[in-house]
Design a protein that fits this description.
alpha+beta
């Protein structure tokens, strides 16, 4: 089943985010290589493709896992969690409909 992982950053997370980004992206790439990643990306803090020093306010991942528990465990092990980037993370089942 698909699961949505929605994360909200702590204030002024850009420095921690950039330091943990390579490890974070490596995990997402592994999901993609397995054909389990539907979409992933950050929420810019401003209405811009390149927010610069404004940074980001969170992230969205939609990926396939065997269970809600497996999705939660994957989210809990995110390098951004360990680096203190995320203030909160919500994992919910997601029914893929379109396109």
């Amino acid at each position: 089943m698909w699961y949505m992982i929605s994360s909200q950053d702590v204030e002024n997370s850009l420095e921690q985010r950039m330091a943990a980004r390579p490890a974070h992206l490596a995990r997402l790439q592994a999901l993609s290589d397995e054909g389990r990643l539907k979409i992933a990306g950050p929420h810019p803090a401003i209405d811009s493709q390149t927010p610069g020093d404004a940074g980001f306010t969170g992230s969205l991942v939609v990926a396939e896992f065997d269970s809600l528990e497996a999705a939660q465990a994957w989210a809990d092990a995110d390098p951004y969690v360990a680096a203190g980037v995320y203030a909160s993370v919500v994992v919910k089942p997601f029914l893929y409909v379109l396109p």
